[in-house]
Amino acid sequence: MKLYNKSILMLAVGLTMTACSDFLDKEPTDQGTEAITFKTPEQFEQAANRLYCFGGKWDVKFELNLDTSGIGANDAGTTGESHGTWGFGGHRECNILLEKAASYAGPLEDMTASHPIATSVGTAYFFRAWHHFNQLRTFGGVPIIDHVIDTSDPVVYGKRNSRYEVAYLVMNDLKRAVDLLPKRSTLSGLENRGKLTREGAQGFLARVALYEATWEKYTPSIGIDLDGDGESVGAGKFKPEGYPSVEEWLALARDMSKAVIDEAERGTFALWDECSDTGLSYYYLFNLDDANGNIANYKGVGKATNKEFIINNPYDVDLKKGGSNLAYTVTTGQSSNISAWFGESFVCSNGLPIHLSTSSSYQDAYYNEEFGGYDTFEGEFENRDMRFIGCIIPPYKVTWTAATEYGDPMTALGNPYPEPLFPEPSDSWNPSDPANVSKRGVYTPMIGVNSTHNGYGCRKYLIEGAGRSTNQESADWPVLRLAEVHCIYAEAVCELGNGAISDADLDFSINKNRARAKVARLTNSLIAGKFDAGWFNFATGSYECHAMTMLDEIRRERTCELFAENFRMDDLKRWGIAHINLNGRKLGRRILGTAYTNPANTVNGPSNVSNYYGEPAYNPQTRPLQYGMASEDPASPDYGRPIATRAENCFWNVRQYLDFIPEGQRRLNPNLTQKPGW
């Protein structure tokens, strides 16, 4: 069986060699699941533990440069020989366990959560769904691998199943996982850290259901038939009996997310808010360490206080380090560059956008009364959603970074932001300002050909602290967290309500996220009759007045809350706007008419000279903009914004809603039809 040998087996061998959590006992350690005897519950548990090694996006993976960098599409529609997501080793490991379980315990449909191997079986169902869903997101329809196949199996040379058949399998597998996995409240001890729970399966099922519902609702409008006829192109449109409608998918997303939130209401889960006094809880959430590692937040609290992560990949400074230089990756902009559009998506603390209008006309547009403006370095950060400061480095303020920029040791543990967050203005030099004590810790947003072209620096996942060597970070990596479940619930309810949602449902879900971010509640009265004058129309590449709607605001919440967590591309696709939002030029933070060009003399001279804060923030003589300025007209909404990425550098075609089927696999199995447009 060439397909199996070259695709499934090779992937299985490769992933078997991947390091897994050392605290998970494995037997034997040098062989695959097939070598396990499967005669005792303990052996089933060993096999189930191995499935975590096949988690795909389970490990640290950044959402790379999605916001400003050019998205290179294959305009010719040419296909490659291979694809990293095309492989079935993980599916096989799950199926082996499930078949052995049926021989050991009898019909799996009769198994209950009280059975000695129920958790192992539930784990196998979850990961089989996980693998199929990852392929569904990538390819649409794929061959369903729901049993252990051999060289004579018709699946080997069969057609792809439709996306609807795959989604149906994923749904049913996750429902079985929900039935069999234990509740989080019943687990304790180091040996269970990172283990799957009933709530994890419920939350993931909610994610899947929302994805499928909105994909079916919005992608038919993009101008290409992504399913094809299943004979000459695509995987076809066959829907199995009992396949949910869009409304049923949405109801499932609502109900599963509600079940998780209800459990959180009982105290099992909670948004992490230990640093609520400064509003920096969101920022520190993503670099929590533990007592044996490198606790970096000023509260001195570690992972034991984190009840927000429902599914996560656990790391440990002694047992299993992350193996990724997070601080370097983040500070050098490799994780995700940030555009003006994203920066200005964060609302002010009163819950409204920074640029408002009372009509559809741009003529009466005005700045939100809480908006600090662009004149000073920190003005746009004042009175804003604290997730803004959690995602973007405030300019000219200390950032305790693991980078040894000047060859000196890493900064000792301390509070990087004394009360208040901006104790002194950054536009003039004040040596008594705590943020200016250490030159090496000050972030300067250079704007020029040899630096970022957008002026914003990403800080989400930035590891703070002392004495940590590179690639040794051990912050846990979130796979599913409570804040995402809040977003799922709100979006599903709003979609079911045709754009309407009650204040009570908003309070039950995303208003909890907003409270941590120190943002006013989102209510129907708050946005009634208001227009967002800073709304960016990606289709036209310009800002315009846009009537505020609940669905837009819920999507805004999701965008801000889940930035750089590998959701944005999927969201743009399922909303049917990826081909619009990923094309066109991308702009950076406003530069002209701000402190970045202000020559006001201070104690040490102009704010942009090199002996003041290091490199100049904006010096067109020595560091000209690579692509120029969007507009030098103060009346233009694009006034003073550098062009981060030119429109001609961004190519994204509707065919890329689904990836190509690798040609190497199509030669092995001619029945694998190619995707539409490729």
Could you give a quick summary of the protein structure above?
This protein has 678 residues and is mainly alpha-helical. It contains 20 helices and eight strands. It has helices spanning 2-16, 41-50, 89-105, 118-139, 163-180, 198-218, 246-265, 281-285, 326-331, 340-343, 386-391, 482-496, 503-508, 510-516, 524-527, 550-561, 568-574, 578-581, 610-613, 663-668, and strands at residues 309-313, 355-357, 366-367, 477-481, 531-537, 542-547, 586-587, 643-645.
Low-confidence spans: pLDDT under 50, at least 5 residues? 1-31, 402-415, 601-615
Structural class: mainly alpha
Topology as a string of helices (H) and strands (E): HHHHHHHHEHHEEHEHHHHEEHHHEHEH
Oligomer: single chain
CATH topology of the largest domain: Serine Threonine Protein Phosphatase 5, Tetratricopeptide repeat
* Overall tally of structural domains: 2
Largest sheet: spatial strand order: 3-2-5-6
- Tell how many strands the DSSP assignment holds: 8
Radius of gyration: 26 Å
Helix content: 25-40%
Describe what you observe in this structure.
With 678 residues, the protein is mainly α. It folds into two domains: 1-61 and 84-181, Serine Threonine Protein Phosphatase 5, Tetratricopeptide repeat (Alpha Horseshoe); 199-678, Serine Threonine Protein Phosphatase 5, Tetratricopeptide repeat, CATH 1.25.40. Helices cover 31% and strands 5% of the residues. The chain is built from 20 helices and eight strands. The longest helix is centred in the first third of the chain and has 22 residues, at 118-139. It is globular and about 75 Å long.
